[in-house]
Amino acid sequence: MRLDHLSYAAGPDGLEATAQRIGHLLGRHFVDGGVHPRFGTRNRILPLADNTYLEVVEALDHPASDKAPFGQAVKARSAAGGGWLGWVVAVDDISVVEQRLGRAAVAGSRHRPDGTELKWKQIGVHGLLSDPQLPFFIQWDSPAELHPSAGSDATFSLACLEIAGDPQRVSEWLGESVEAPLEDVKVEWVAPHGTPGILAAQVMTPGGLVRI
Fold first, then answer.
1. Is residue 68, in this structure, part of any structural domain at all?
2. DSSP H or E run through 174
3. Are 47 and 148 a contacting pair, CB within 8 Å?
4. 3-state per-residue secondary structure call for 62-73
5. Which residues contact 114 (CB under 8 A, 6 or more apart)?
6. Which of 55, 134, 162, 179 is spaced 20 to 30 Å from 168 by Cα?
7. What is the pLDDT along the chain (212 residues), one digit of tens a residue?
8. Burial of 145 (C-beta count, 10 Å sphere; 0-12/13-18/19+)
9. How many domains are contained in the chain?
10. In terms of pTM, does the model score above 0.90?
11. b or e along 164-199 (b: 16 or more beta carbons within 10 Å of the residue's beta carbon)?
């Protein structure tokens, strides 16, 4: 179990402008990640060190975004002005999570601009919808060399994650200590005074620490 990526929902200015704005702060461009046909969303990504990456995502004007929980979550966050949507934990065997949560994972995929298809299974977005401090889970079915973090510049890394929430609640959701997937990332837990979830991510760049 490890931190896989962070998702940021595009604001009213759309996917391109949101990704450009964040990329400008970090001093690096996001790249086109492609469309998630099952979820009615599309993304742009920025690879980071330690097999992690940042994702800016937006919902498409497509029926799938109204039906799929992930599309619903993106739409709701974007409608609220955009911002951090959630964090995602990678597992080796998602069947363990399926048994614990009592439901089946769903298949996900997207085609990169070069035509390469990425495949995975995910579960737990319903938890994110009801309690945004909770991550959802992903098991990659594509080779490690195709992971979105591939080709990352080691000088860009996630230094700290600020979360409004309860680490005990998150540990119960994960089925083990929250420190397991976040052992290489400093986490600052803040008691929520409103909606729980990611407050900010601090990224180490060649120009220093940047807080998004």
1. yes
2. helix 167-174
3. yes
4. CHHHHHCHHHHH
5. none
6. 55
7. 999 999 999 999 999 999 999 999 999 999 999 999 999 999 999 999 999 999 999 999 888 888 999 999 999 999 999 999 999 999 999 999 999 999 999 999 999 989 999 999 999 999 889 999 999 999 999 999 999 998 888 899 999 999 999 999 999 999 989 888 888 889 999 988 778 999 999 999 999 999 99
8. exposed
9. 1
10. yes
11. bbbeeebeebbeeebeebbeebebebeeeeeebbbb
Place of tokens 């439901």: 103
Q: Is 12 helix (H, G, I), strand (E, B) or coil?
A: coil
Tokens of 200: 């900010």
Token readout for 94 is 């998602």
**DSSP secondary structure letter of residue 193:** S
Cβ-count burial 13-50 (b if 16+ within 10 Å, e if not): eebeebbbebbeebebebbebbbbbbbbbbbbbbbbbe
- Other CB atoms within 10 A of residue 100 CB: 13
- The range of the structural domain enclosing residue 28 comes to 2-152
Tokens of 77: 């966050």
Q: How many residues does the chain have?
A: 212
CATH value at residue 61: 3.10.180.10
125: left (phi over 0), alpha (psi -120 to 50) or beta: alpha
